[in-house]
Amino acid sequence: KAGVTQTPRYLIKTRGQQVTLSCSPISGHRSVSWYQQTPGQGLQFLFEYFSETQRNKGNFPGRFSGRQFSNSRSEMNVSTLELGDSALYLCASSLVGTLDEQYFGPGTRLTVT
Amino acid sequence: AQSVTQLDSQVPVFEEAPVELRCNYSSSVSVYLFWYVQYPNQGLQLLLKYLSGSTLVKGINGFEAEFNKSQTSFHLRKPSVHISDTAEYFCAVSDTGGFKTIFGAGTRLFVKA
């Protein structure tokens, strides 16, 4: 079966702009989690969605938001971009939650200049 | 609050030698532990997980880990490594509900010929 897909794979934005990243989970998976990966901070949990509901959120400012659609596809949005938002953003899907195996996408590399 | 500490940022080892990657966790509730591997320029892949039952967990690619409640540890071991095991390894803990995963900072395993 097809894996987790993320689009776009690479993005370059300037400070102050906003960006939307997309994640399509594995068919049948209803839980989608987002993570930010940077060399200094490692993998940090952003939020988790299940059946269009955000069940948990990490310690990120309100500029980071997300949503999930009825087909389980998910988007995350970052507004008013800062240089420190440059990172690899990873999406992971699982059947019902993070106690199941999470399948990770290849990530979206965001560079803010 | 839950947290994960990976005690070694880098572990160099010769091919066919044994290896242990150390992980300690803190949690005030039931613990669900995972090891993930990330190969260069790829997303993460689950190696193994502990939810309950036997404290010795066997995973893919010949890896195993032992859950030690008294020492709050979940160390990853492999008796004989290959060049292809060169990657970054992440220890992680999930909350009871499966809504959030906290990752350690990662250990870079470098296997030398």
What can you tell me about this protein's structure?
The complex is a heterodimer of chains A (113) and B (113). Chain A is mostly beta strands. Helices cover 0% and strands 53% of the residues of chain A. Chain A has no helices and eleven strands. In chain A, strands 2, 4, 5, 6, 9, 10 and 11 form a seven-stranded mixed β-sheet that branches. A four-stranded antiparallel β-sheet of chain A has the order 1-3-8-7, with no helix packed on it. Chain A is globular. The model of chain A has no long low-confidence stretch (mean pLDDT 94). Chain B has 113 residues and is mainly beta. Chain B contains no helices and twelve strands. In chain B, the strands form three sheets. In chain B, strands 2, 5, 6, 10, 11 and 12 form a six-stranded mixed β-sheet that branches. Chain B has a four-stranded antiparallel β-sheet with strand order 3-9-8-7, with no helix packed on it. In chain B, strand 7 and strand 8 form a beta hairpin. At the A-B interface, strand 4 and strand 5 of A face strand 6 and strand 11 of B.
Number of strands of chain B: 12
What does the radius of gyration of chain B come to? 13 Å
Query: SSE string of chain A, helix = H, strand = E?
Result: EEEEEEEEEEE
Give the distance, in angstroms, between the N- and C-terminal Cα atoms of chain A: 37 Å
The helix tally of chain B amounts to: 0
Mean pLDDT of chain A: 94
Unreliable residue runs of chain A: none
What summary fits the major beta sheet of chain A?
Answer: 7 strands, mixed
Task: Indicate the radius of gyration of chain A in whole angstroms.
Answer: 13 Å
**Number of helix segments of chain A?**
0
Helix content of chain A: under 10%
Compile the SSE list and pairings.
The complex is a heterodimer of chains A (113) and B (113).
Chain A: E1 5-7, E2 10-13, E3 19-24, E4 31-38, E5 42-50, E6 53-57, E7 64-68, E8 74-78, E9 87-94, E10 103-104, E11 108-112
Parallel strand pairs in A: 2-11
Antiparallel strand pairs in A: 1-3, 3-8, 4-5, 4-9, 5-6, 7-8, 9-10, 9-11
Chain B: E1 3-6, E2 10-14, E3 19-21, E4 23-26, E5 32-38, E6 44-50, E7 56-58, E8 64-68, E9 73-78, E10 87-94, E11 101-103, E12 107-112
Parallel strand pairs in B: 2-12
Antiparallel strand pairs in B: 1-4, 3-9, 5-6, 5-10, 7-8, 8-9, 10-11, 10-12
